Amino acid sequence: MRPTDPITTRRRGHRRVRAVTAAVAGTALAGTGVLTVVVAADHPAAAAAETSSATTGTDRVQPSGGLGRAPSSGVPHASSGGS
Amino acid sequence: MDLRDGTVASADWAAWTCRVRLAVTDPAALDDARALLTDDLADVDLACSRFRTDAELALLDGAHGRWVSVSPLLIEALGVALRAARLTDGDVDPTVGGALVELGYDRAVEDIDPGLVPPVLRPVAGWQTVELDIEAHRVRVPDGVQLDLGATAKAWTADRSAAEIARRTGSGVLVSIGGDVAVAGRAPEGGWRVRVEDVTGDPSGPASPGSATVTITDGGLATSSTRARRWQRGGVQVHHLLDPRTGLPPVPAWRTVSAAAGSCVDANTVSTATVVRGHGAWPWLRELGVPVRLVTEHGDVLTGGGWPA
Description:
The structure holds two protein chains of two kinds.
Chain A: H1 6-29, H2 33-42, H3 44-56, E1 67-69, E2 78-82
Helix pairs in contact in A: 1-3, 2-3
Chain B: E1 2-5, E2 8-15, E3 18-24, H1 30-48, H2 56-61, E4 67-69, H3 72-87, H4 97-102, E5 131-133, E6 138-140, H5 150-169, E7 173-177, E8 180-184, E9 192-199, E10 212-216, E11 220-225, E12 230-233, E13 236-239, E14 254-261, H6 264-277, H7 282-288, E15 292-296, E16 301-304
Antiparallel strand pairs in B: 1-2, 2-3, 3-7, 4-6, 5-6, 7-8, 8-11, 9-10, 11-14, 12-13, 14-15, 15-16
Helix pairs in contact in B: 1-5, 3-5, 5-6
């Protein structure tokens, strides 16, 4: 195993922080189209994050694990209808 | 009333003029879960209600197009609403508030003045006119545009409350707000049983004609229906689901649409947009591939996306 260089470690840490910042911005950007304009103007990280949100698939309807057919017996736990 | 059925305990009450149902797989967690959900409902109501003059949302109406500082909670709710608008190409649009008021829906449905003047076709301003600045916690809405977060707020609240209850209590949980159902944590054996029907009812009561019961283990399930919140306006029967392009209820195609997705708010986004799009929704639904159940005005049922037969 190679010895750890503390300077390199610190640099990597900074990169991780920037990556997390971009990821958080990407999640926020997934929220609204207008927001994209506002944030992109203020934050350099947003440009990269915008690309990230477009490629990670967060800005789309997310599928569930699917539905099953309920057994004929048993009281439902909830009702879903208009309200 | 609290009911304890096997390993699942549940509680029912009314909020936001809706039925609220909370169910947990750990009966010991029910009281804490109910307190959490009650607090969440109160917080969201104070931030997002279109029917309260003291709600934060009312500040936007009086701002006349200026930027307004709002709470992180309202910022998040607005972000969710605008995301739904973008995902549906504007079919689920929060700027329908003014159109709903024009139709008399600025009070409880049973108190709406039927009026004498028929509704007028008037497209809404559109979600793109709303500016949201998350970093500064502020929002700007054009003068005269009123927002309504009803299409997404219930489902979003169900999602966030269910997740928080599961995180804090460790229990599996189901939250239903007016039939917008979110689940989190470990589901009971066989999954959460949810009965889909035209109007949200008492799950312990007899099944309504044409209903179906399915199971879910994650995400959410939502139903949008033209059979709920209906009233007369100027001699015309209207309801609360509007086509933003006309400001009026859409041409009837589906009376009730149910959908399941990775979150309740996504499920509700799909079900509401499908009611608005009518028959034109099919290509979009095929592309999404999520389970859907559509009921025609005549009661015929169509399913897709893996909805159980």
